[in-house]
Description:
mainly beta; 2 domains; 7-stranded antiparallel beta sheet; two-stranded antiparallel ribbon; 3 helices; globular
Amino acid sequence: MAGPVQKASLKIEDGDTLACLFNPKDFSVTKSNAWEAKAAPGKSAAKPTFGGGQPRELTLQLLFDSTLLTPAVTVKDVANKLFEAMNASKNEGGAKNKSRPPTLTFTWGAFSFEGVSKSLTIAYQLFRPDGEPIRADVKLALMQWDVEGPAGQNPTTRSANALGAHIVRDGDSLPSIAYRIYGDPTQWRAIAEANGIDDPLKLTSGRSLSVPSLDV
């Protein structure tokens, strides 16, 4: 028996969670590598040299409609929050000239992606007689924020050693934490078992979770 339809959401770091009224028809995750091939005299082709990997990127399209939002929220409010998330409002470690935009976490069921806004386009499509927009088509591109974890692993067994601890933040879910740590949201059960969590949807902000290491 199919479960209830889960709604996607966008969580702004230290800010609001924007509920997606309509789930996206699709979204894309891309990953690219840098390669360099220098021409060599007398050879038809040069062997490429690996220049490093680039962060993953998520692109998606969302629709917001004021007629379906709460009376206190308008399409302009949603648009302003998204545009504000493009501004460098977060200070990195207290250092000068190290500000950055806040992270955005897109979550839909077991899928979660934390990134920073790379590009944002909002097309207003429907208007009230006074010109106020009531429908907006949002095109958003996010660049992966936390790239230090062992992303891409597909571990099958767990070791007794722990990678460390994770402090639960507002908007966190076990799949989003697993993606941030392991690069694979389906590994959330490892964290649940290590911390005796029976309900993965009930996480208390501020709780410290033990993060187990995973052996291939």
